[in-house]
Structure formats: C-alpha cells, structure tokens
Amino acid sequence: MKEIEVTRIVNDCTAQLYFDAIYATDAAMRTFHAKVNGDSAAVLGPWSADGIRTAQFVMPMNVPAMLKKFIGMDSVPVVETQKVEWLTPGKVFKLVSEPQLNFPGANKFTTSGHLEVRSLSDGTCKIKALVRCSASMPWPVQATVEGLMATEATQSIDTFLSFCVQYYSTWRAEQLQQPELPAAPSVTAAAGGEQFYDAVEDESEIRAGGEAAEGETSVVPYQPPRLEDIIVDCLRKIQASSAETAQSLRNLEELIRNMDDNMQVVRDKLVGRKPQPTARVAAGRTSATAPPAASTVGGGGAGAAKAP
Which residue ranges are recorded for the region named Disordered (predicted)? Predict the structure, then answer.
C-alpha cells in the first residue's frame, strides 16, 4: 500500500469559508469535472442530514500504457461517496472520499483518502490531503502498480487543490463585492409553528428612530397586523356588504311596486272597455229607431232607390 500526503495554505480563508465555497453546493465540483476532467455531465447529490452525498463522474486514466491495457479503457465512470464531519464547528472539518471505479477488475485497485481543512490563527487555513493506494496483483508487479497509482494520485490531488484554491479566490472576491444586506428582524417560534416578530418594547426606540441624521432613511421593521385588527376589518367589510345588499333589495322592491302600479293601470283600462254589440242586435235597434230610407241593411239606402 502506498500513502500520499499533500498540503496547501489558502490565504484570507477559514475552514467555514472554504467549505461554503467548495463543498456547500455542487457548483465548484461540477466546474472542476467539466474543465479538468472534460465531463460536463457530472452529478453531485445533496448533502444528507448526516453529512453524506454521492458524486457521479467520468475520470480519464492518465496511466502508463501497460496499466491502461490492463484496464482496457481511456476513462472510467466513478461513483464517489463523500462524508463530511466537523471536528471543531466552523474551524476544522474532515472530508472522507471513497471512489468506486466501474470497469472489469476494478476490485483489484483500491483508492481511499480524506482531507482535513483547519483554520489558522493568522487568517489562513491549511488543507492536508491524505490518499492510500493499494493493488491486489501478483507480488512481482504489485509494488510497480501501486507506485504508478501513487504517482497518478499525487498529480490528481495537486491538480484538484490548485483548482480549489483558484476557485476560492474568485468566489471570495465576488462575496466581498456584494453589498451587505440588512439583517432580517428576529423571529421567535411559538407552539403550533406560528412565528411572532419582536415588537418595539420601549418608546425610546421609536424616538431614536425618528432622530436619525438628516438625509438618512431609517428602516422600520415590518410589523404584522394583529389578529384583532384583521377580524374587525373583516366584520366591517361584511357590514358594508350587507348594507349594499339591503339597499339593492329596497331598490328591487320599489321597482316591483312600480311595475304593480303600471299593471293595475293596464287592468283598469281593460276592465273599463265596453263590449262590442253583435250584428243582429245592432240591426234590430236600427230598424226600430231609424227611417227606412236611411237603412244600410242589404246595401240599400238612397242610392238603392235610384237604381233602375
């Protein structure tokens, strides 16, 4: 078995900052695999509650032709399990990596390692990477193969740490350029999951907010409405809606009343009309009261007497 140890010092860095930049999300690792390993399809899962995640990527085999012939592939798919443990919260963490290579005979080659990131008192952090390589091969070639694996591991670690340091420097510069956001008001969780924002308990705090220097705008914390105010507002809206409904009903009642009056007028007119007399009754009345010459029955009359 071969063991390799590589160390680096990162300026203007703490263990927490380094973790936030390199490991908190998948951005740094995906960028590394895309730019260095040529694998833009690398996938890193989220961290579990116990600090474990899985990475899947393709790794090129930069090994001598003899070993590459044995492997039979120029690049191999890798499933890597990563586990992080904070030895001292915010100051020291340890990341254990266990890659599993996927090619025929991969169980003959074992590589495992971990790195430890520690905050130093001078404002820097120290990265120490330790990798162990072993090969289950016949004894005449075992030492040679393990030596080749160690050389490859050393180059890989050196390339990886160089990338991480550069990535951190860019990330840190971007963080320092971002404006600092105002702190959110404190929230207290109560039973049942409700959250209550701290209210201003002293009137002097209100006066102090109003006495800010001229040209400056004081930030007033958000005060959520009270439940009593919400209920009163709802009742007022219901009352206003009820009043509008009552007025609409009164208007409808007045409209119906006017329609009834109009219908009564129509009925009165229809009832007051005299019935039309029949033809027989009209003829009898005419013959009894009018002279014969004026009769129009049968088309007679003065015109009929002159007919030849």
Answer: 274-308
